[in-house]
């Protein structure tokens, strides 16, 4: 096919507040889920003021989704109602499948100089796996491979593959890619994606062009959603360009969504919240 993807939509992340008072910027989410299917939300939390994040995300439920937390700087302590606990540090990733239900908390602590920076992406689960048993994949920074191409482009591979090098997260139903890419000044990188997959980029730093033949800069804290095609062509501008590239297979299923609980019907959503109120939310795992 060899069709370069064109820009479908450009969105600047918007300030919002979540949890017990965490200041963050939302790239997309809590709107029409069709455009980004199978992805639901992307948040960018970035502050060197502990007052903006220290209250964190106290105990709350998740069901029917996966949350992917990628920390660039700082630490996030986490725990859940099943007794799991740990710390996600700088460069680490946690891929949490809530499935049938998890009640957990996430408490950012920041780095030694107070910097907290990272991203949380929500991915939907198909109806057949909404009630699967919860699972965690905690990936340390040292276990995330990084490749450097001949033109100086550097790519950290969280999920997916580049030049036959595979990321540590495998066997996810939406067949995702999650890459952290840095392109040197005025260099280009062309990355293959499956033509039927949803694909977007989010700029971490620098600026560049995200469609061949255009002259419009895209700079930091900006998301680009792409149209169909099998190549994403990116060229850095006057600064080195760092961005995440995410793609995945659309589920094309109905979405009933309220907060961190995402089901297929309103009845299923009401059942989930009733179970949470009644204390029957946590299930014995269904290993499908």
Shape: globular
Taking pLDDT < 50 over at least 5 consecutive residues as the criterion, the unreliable ranges are none
The count of strands amounts to 26
**What is the end-to-end distance?**
35 Å
CATH architecture assignment: Sandwich
- Oligomer description: single chain
Give the biggest beta sheet: 7 strands, antiparallel
CATH topology: Jelly Rolls
Identify the strand order in the major beta sheet. 1-22-19-24-17-14-13
* Proportion of beta-strand residues: over 45%
So what's the CATH class?
Answer: Mainly Beta
Briefly note the structural class of the backbone: mainly beta
Q: What is the string of SSEs from the N terminus onward?
A: EEEEEEEEEEEEEEEEEEEEEEEEEEH
Radius of gyration: 19 Å
**Mean of pLDDT:** 93
Query: What is the total number of structural domains?
Result: 1
Helix run count: 1
CATH superfamily membership: Jelly Rolls
Helix content: under 10%
Give a concise summary.
This protein is mainly beta and 288 residues long. It is built from 1 helix and 26 strands.
How would you characterize this protein structure?
The strands form six sheets. Strands 1-22-19-24-17-14-13 form a seven-stranded antiparallel beta sheet, with no helix packed on it. The protein has a seven-stranded antiparallel beta sheet with strand order 2-3-4-11-6-9-12, with no helix packed on it. A four-stranded antiparallel beta sheet has the order 5-10-7-8, with no helix packed on it. The chain has one domain (7-248): Jelly Rolls. It has one helix at 266-278; strands at 7-12, 14-18, 22-29, 39-47, 57-62, 65-73, 76-80, 85-88, 93-97, 102-108, 116-124, 135-139, 146-148, 154-159, 161-162, 165-166, 177-183, 188-192, 198-205, 207-209, 218-219, 222-226, 231-236, 241-248, 256-258, 261-263. It contains one helix and 26 strands. It is 5% helix and 49% strand. The protein is globular. With 288 residues, the chain is mainly beta.
């Amino acid at each position: 096919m060899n069709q370069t993807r064109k820009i479908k939509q450009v969105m600047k992340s918007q300030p919002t507040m979540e949890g017990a008072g965490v200041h963050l910027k939302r790239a997309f989410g809590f709107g029409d889920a069709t455009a980004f299917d199978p992805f639901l939300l992307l948040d960018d939390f970035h502050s060197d003021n502990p007052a903006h994040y220290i209250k964190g995300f106290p105990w709350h439920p998740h069901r029917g989704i996966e949350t992917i937390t990628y920390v660039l700087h700082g630490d996030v302590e986490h725990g859940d109602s099943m007794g799991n606990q740990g710390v996600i540090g700088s460069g680490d990733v946690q891929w949490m499948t809530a499935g049938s239900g998890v009640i957990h908390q996430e408490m950012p602590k920041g780095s030694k100089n107070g910097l907290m920076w990272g991203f949380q992406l929500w991915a939907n689960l198909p109806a057949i796996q909404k009630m699967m048993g919860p699972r965690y994949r905690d990936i340390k920074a040292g276990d995330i491979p990084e490749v450097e191409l001949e033109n100086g482009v550097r790519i950290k591979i969280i999920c997916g593959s580049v030049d036959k090098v595979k990321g540590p997260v495998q066997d996810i139903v939406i067949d995702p890619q999650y890459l952290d890419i840095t392109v040197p000044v005025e260099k280009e990188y062309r990355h293959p994606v499956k033509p039927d997959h949803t694909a977007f980029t989010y700029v971490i730093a620098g600026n560049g062009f995200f469609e061949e033949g255009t002259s419009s800069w895209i700079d930091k804290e900006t998301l680009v959603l792409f149209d169909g095609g099998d190549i994403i062509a990116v060229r850095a501008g006057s600064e080195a360009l760092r961005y995440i590239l995410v793609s995945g297979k659309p589920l094309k299923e109905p979405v009933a969504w309220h907060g961190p609980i995402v089901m297929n019907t309103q009845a299923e959503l009401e059942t989930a919240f009733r179970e949470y109120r009644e204390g029957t939310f946590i299930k014995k795992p269904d290993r499908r």
